[in-house]
Amino acid sequence: MNEPVSVREVMNREYVGVSESDDLLETTELLVREDEAVALVLRGNDPVGVLTREDILAHLVSEGGTESAVVGDAMTESVPSISPDARLPEARDRMAAWSAQWVLITEDGEPVGTVTEHDILSTARLESESTTNPDADTDVEGTQMATTQAAAADGASTAAEDSFDEQGICSACGTFARDLASFNGQLLCADCRDV
Predict the structure, then answer these.
(1) Within a 13 Å sphere around the CA of 61, how many CA atoms are in the beta-carbon half?
(2) Higher per-residue confidence, 69 vs 140
(3) Span of 3-7, 32-36, 153-157 with lowest mean pLDDT
(4) Which residue has the higher pLDDT, 175 or 82?
(5) How far is CA 81 from CA 6, 16, 112, 162, 169, in A?
(6) Which residues are annotated as a binding site for Fe cation?
(7) Which domains does the chain have, with CATH numbers?
(8) What residues are designated binding site?
(9) How many of the other CB atoms lie within 10 Å of CB of 22?
(10) Structural contact between residues 126 and 134, judged by C-beta atoms closer than 8 angstroms
(11) Residues annotated in the binding site for Zn(2+), as ranges?
């Protein structure tokens, strides 16, 4: 059975960093331009909070505008974080505990990246990969091994190289699919591979 993937393997090392005194409107424009849902609020190199799209909307509803608002007026002061050596199930559990769609990755107290729900979904394995199929007499893992051995014996590439037996998000259309396959360096669903 495969070891769980570490956070370091899938984390995004680039993130939007802002300070508490930055203009809220300019920061909102930055988030839109960078197509990011969250900005990490830093005091020096220390994370002191986050600014999400929801924080900005809540500020607009409660205060009615952003004319003189700064990031510190709208930010959330708590930051869910985890070590880069943690496994993805731990990151998923941390997100669930904080009701967050992302988690900050810190090493020696310094921010080094983020992991999102999308990152976790795109690396999730099919649950049936290591269990038996109740509708069949054969075990899925044994069938995959036999298929892989037969392909290797024929001189063909292995099933692991041809496709990914994973569920995840299609790189082209963004839909959740169980039949992703690598095509030109992207994981694509059956519909997008046919185009």
Answers:
(1) 6
(2) 69
(3) 153-157
(4) 82
(5) 14, 16, 11, 35, 24
(6) 170, 173, 189, 192
(7) 7-121 (3.10.580.10), 127-194 (no CATH)
(8) 170, 173, 189, 192
(9) 17
(10) no
(11) 170, 173, 189, 192
Distance CA 14, CA 109 (A): 17
| pLDDT tens profile 117-171 | 888 887 765 333 433 344 444 444 444 444 444 444 444 433 333 334 446 787 8
- Tokens (6 digits) for 40: 């990490």
Distances 131 to 41, 140, 177 between C-alpha atoms, Å: 44, 7, 20
Q: Is 83 exposed, middle or buried (0-12, 13-18, 19+ CB in 10 A)?
A: middle
Closest CA to 47 of 24, 21, 14, 80: 80
